[in-house]
Specification:
The protein contains eight helices and 13 strands. By secondary structure, the protein is an alpha/beta fold. It has a domain of about 220 residues: Spore Coat Polysaccharide Biosynthesis Protein SpsA, Chain A, CATH 3.90.550. The strands form three sheets. The protein has an eight-stranded mixed sheet, sandwiched between helices. Strands 1-2-3 form a three-stranded antiparallel sheet, with no helix packed on it. Strand 6, helix 2 and strand 7 form a beta-alpha-beta unit. The longest helix is centred in the middle third of the chain and has 15 residues. The protein is globular and about 65 Å long. It starts with a strand and ends in a 9-residue tail after the last helix. Its main location: Golgi. It holds the Pfam family Galactosyl_T. It is a single-pass type II membrane protein. It is an enzyme of class 2 (transferase).
């Protein structure tokens, strides 16, 4: 029986959330092996990512990436919560249409849902066939686990795709402009592009949504990182990130952990791209057409931005 873990980040206790038919119990994280002369002693309060991540996917849909991605230019994986069906529909009906191209693939990546959500998700997946569901319980504190599930899927089923865009279901993506960006950076390796934040300080107050315990990240300044709403990776960055993650203390801020902590440890380039707005912007046709990624887009706003992206009347300065 595969269990699904969720991190309670303050107490560092692991709650095991099993599949139907098993009981729920609370346990603490498993202790590490006894230290040797060559191995520094690990603080027993520190939870490593390997203590929490559960590999594998339910109905992984390898057909979404034909020939392991050999004929694709771009793979778009959209992280989504099980209950966000209306947001997924908005993406499918607007910018997600570009997945109809033979050189673009798109899927939604979810964590394991509550049992009450399973029937609805099964019906949605039967209709669209684009839901990739990981084994770790879906929650805000588990966003890092969801992103690792996304990287695992790409590495397993689409390893030959040259570029991966990680984005969220409240984003509007200007796919034509993104494809032009991809074309002008074809020979770049081991790079993450996006809205790069530099010299950001960890939030140490437990009242903050972005609280980080010193046990999760002891440093005073985060490494440079690309913000999580949308960032683009070269495919050769995916496996090294997956291999480096298990031995690092679990950090629930997925963008800081994946693109910052791991990216810095691996010596990957984190490059700022102004077109990754990763914020809400004025819904003017020129702003939409110039950008790559717009954040905080509600269901009904996707259709307005889609119309403005396709607007053929407004004259925009280059």
């Amino acid at each position: 029986m595969i269990t699904i873990t969720i991190l309670l980040f303050i107490s560092f206790q692991v709650r095991i959330v099993p599949h139907a038919g098993t009981s729920v119990r609370n346990v603490t994280a498993a202790p590490s092996a006894a230290p040797t002369a060559a191995t520094p002693r690990r603080d027993p309060r520190v939870v490593l990512t390997r203590d929490l991540y559960v590999a594998g996917h339910e109905q992984p849909h390898p057909e979404l990436c034909p020939a392991l991605g050999a004929h694709l230019r771009l793979l778009i994986l959209v992280t989504s919560a099980p209950s966000h069906s209306i947001a997924r529909d908005a993406v499918r009906l607007t910018w997600g249409h570009y997945a109809a191209r033979r050189d673009v693939a798109l899927a939604f990546v979810l964590g394991s849902p509550q049992e009450s959500m399973r029937a609805a998700l099964e019906a949605e997946d039967a209709l669209y066939g684009d839901l990739v569901i990981g084994r770790s319980f879906d929650s805000y504190s588990n966003l890092t686990l969801k992103t690792l599930s996304m990287l695992e899927w790409a590495d397993t089923y689409c390893p030959r795709v040259p570029r991966l865009l990680k984005t969220d279901d409240d984003m509007f993506i200007n796919v034509p402009r993104l494809l032009r960006f991809v074309s002008t950076h074809e020979n770049v390796t081991r790079t993450i592009w996006g809205k790069v934040v530099r010299k950001s300080l960890p939030k140490r107050t437990m009242k903050s949504k972005y609280y980080v315990s010193p046990l999760q990240f002891p440093g005073k300044v985060f490494p440079d990182f690309a913000t999580g709403p949308a960032y683009l990776l070269t495919s050769d960055a995916i496996r090294p990130l997956l291999e480096a993650a298990p031995n690092e203390p679990y950090l629930r801020l997925e963008d800081v952990f994946i693109t910052g902590v791991l990216g810095a440890r691996l010596g990957m380039k984190r490059q700022h791209v102004a077109e990754f707005y990763n914020k809400k912007v004025a819904a003017h046709p020129c702003a939409v057409q110039r950008g790559i990624a717009i954040h905080m887009v509600q269901y009904h706003e996707q259709f307005d931005l889609w119309r403005k992206l396709l607007d053929g009347k407004t004259k925009c300065a280059s």
